[in-house]
Amino acid sequence: MKITAIVSGGMDSATLAYHLIELEHDVELVSFDYGQRHRVELEHAEALSDRLDVPWSLVDLSGLRSLIGGSALTDDTIDVPEGHYAEPSMAKTVVPNRNLIMLSIAAGIAVANDSDRVATGVHAGDHFVYPDCRPTFISAASTAIMLGTDGFAPPGFGVIAPFVHISKADIARIGDELGVPWDETWSCYKGGARHCGLCGTCVERIEAFQIAGVDDPTEYDAMPDLAGLVSTFERIEVDG
Amino acid sequence: MKITAIVSGGMDSATLAYHLIELEHDVELVSFDYGQRHRVELEHAEALSDRLDVPWSLVDLSGLRSLIGGSALTDDTIDVPEGHYAEPSMAKTVVPNRNLIMLSIAAGIAVANDSDRVATGVHAGDHFVYPDCRPTFISAASTAIMLGTDGFAPPGFGVIAPFVHISKADIARIGDELGVPWDETWSCYKGGARHCGLCGTCVERIEAFQIAGVDDPTEYDAMPDLAGLVSTFERIEVDG
Question: Is A4 in a helix, a strand, or coil?
Answer without folding.
Answer: strand
